[in-house]
Specification:
With 165 residues, the chain is mainly α. It contains five helices and no strands. It has helices spanning 3-53, 58-74, 80-109, 115-137, 146-163. Helix 1 (3-53) runs antiparallel to helix 3 and helix 3 (80-109) runs antiparallel to helix 4 (115-137).
Length: 165
């Protein structure tokens, strides 16, 4: 494999990891958002009914209602709703980008592209990836999560060993 082919492969690998990372972030953000919504639903309907039935636990039920009202008040300021929207859109575009350039790998691996063409394709990936990131994450900063990144790398390595060995 030529040096430029190796660089392209590394860029494609990094893109695949990025796609997996966004997907993991999305799934976890959706999970947190869902748990918050479930808590709010249960707290608002269940606490009032429970309070009426078990008056000896008034303080507990009042505390649950106050907590649910507090969470409801701050929920618009939590990052999960906006993050889910951004992640969903970015993930969709990154997956398309990944598939497009994975398909080009076939021709590169078979030696059908010149070093100059490979170099150009590699920088196309970088530029398109950066545009997607800038488009969706300029306002909502996506926190770096080392655990998610490690999980993404593991998933991509499994994918590569299943399809490219």
């Amino acid at each position: 494999m030529s040096e430029e082919q190796e660089r392209y492969w590394q860029e494609l690998y990094d893109l695949k990891v990025h796609v997996s990372y966004l997907e993991i972030h999305l799934l976890n953000s959706e999970s947190i958002d869902k748990k918050i919504n479930i808590f709010l639903s249960i707290a608002s309907s269940g606490s009032i009914a429970s309070w009426a039935i078990w008056k000896e636990y008034e303080f507990i039920w009042a505390s649950v209602i106050v907590l649910s009202q507090f969470i409801n008040a701050i929920k618009p300021f939590l990052p999960y709703g906006a993050r889910i929207k951004s992640l969903s859109k970015a993930l969709r575009e990154m997956e398309i980008l990944s598939l497009e350039y994975e398909e080009k790998w076939f021709y590169i691996a078979n030696g059908e592209k010149t070093e100059e063409e490979i170099h150009k394709l590699r920088f196309e990936i970088k530029n398109k990836k950066q545009k997607i990131i800038s488009k969706y994450f300029s306002k909502n900063i996506l926190p770096t999560n080392k655990k998610y990144l490690e999980e993404a790398e593991t998933l991509v390595q499994e994918h590569i060993s299943n399809y490219y060995n």
